Amino acid sequence: MALAVGLVAVFLRNADVSRVWAAMRGARTDLLVAAVGLIIVTYVVRAERWRYLLAPLGPTRFGVAFRTTVIGFAASAVLPARAGEVLRPYLLARREGLSATAAFATIVIERILDLVAVLVLLAAYFVAFDPGMGARDSVLFSAIRMGGLVMAPASVAALVTMYGLAGHPDWLQAWLRRAERVLPGRLAFVLGRAVRMFSEGFGVLRRPERLVASFGWSLVLWLVISAETWAVARALAIDMPFVGAWLMLALLVVGVSVPTPGGVGGFHEAFRVGATSFFAADNDAAVGAAILLHAVSFLPVTLLGLWFAAREGLDWKGLKQMTNRVGPAEVEA
Fold this sequence. Notes:
Layout: H1 2-12, H2 17-25, H3 29-54, H4 62-78, H5 84-96, H6 100-129, H7 138-167, H8 169-182, H9 185-200, H10 208-235, H11 244-257, H12 266-278, H13 283-311, H14 316-331
Helix pairs in contact: 1-12, 2-13, 3-4, 3-6, 3-10, 3-13, 4-5, 4-13, 5-6, 5-14, 6-7, 6-9, 6-10, 6-11, 8-9, 10-11, 10-13, 11-12, 12-13
């Protein structure tokens, strides 16, 4: 929370509140409504992609995948430390009779696929569409390019490691035997059981066609997120081309990775910096657009997720308590 407050202070340090409010009031309603529709579409895509990743573990219903996805993202918006990323596989596994640990492994694959999809769009921007943005802020532009060059091999290495866990159980068994020699018996047993179940969640990697389909859904997901970002920027008259949103994605991903509830502060400042640095946006318009984009991205899913949670008999306190106990309980389950 302290980090969120500090980042919001940085975000607003040069803003004229009256001009920010005027920019937000003058935003095009049609584009904002379209952005809300697009954010709902993203959760439909997320749920369908998750079903592809979960298929090797067992059949899952779309309705369950959608509801638990929305509940998970709502929990991450109101609780710290990405709590929903642990909560949603637990809820789905409980509903569908799957291993929660194996289901959590599919969340890891999701994040790697998300990273690869963002890097692919960023590379496409650099190769085909870059209109000389580096001239406006060469330091920031170079930092984004370098970050892409570093993360690309890292994401590939992560996929190779997961493939090794999924397709070469002998490697895993050899590693576990070495661990069992140095760890206490009970801890070695719990660790071994958790790692085996976790590796089951990487089962989609044994089916290349399902992995390709999951990556295809990831590209669709981030194209829709790009459209949402572009719609909000254009609603406040920021001269951002659609492909320019692909560049913004790299900054926004960094912004939401800052561990504040709902990405508050980090998300806002990332958008403001990108809009003013690369698209010559007025600072107050960029601040207003960042606030509206964050509201569009988080408010609908938070309200819908809390409603779904209430139907499951969970309030905010219940979500927090469940998140706190999921980890150790499920590792030993």
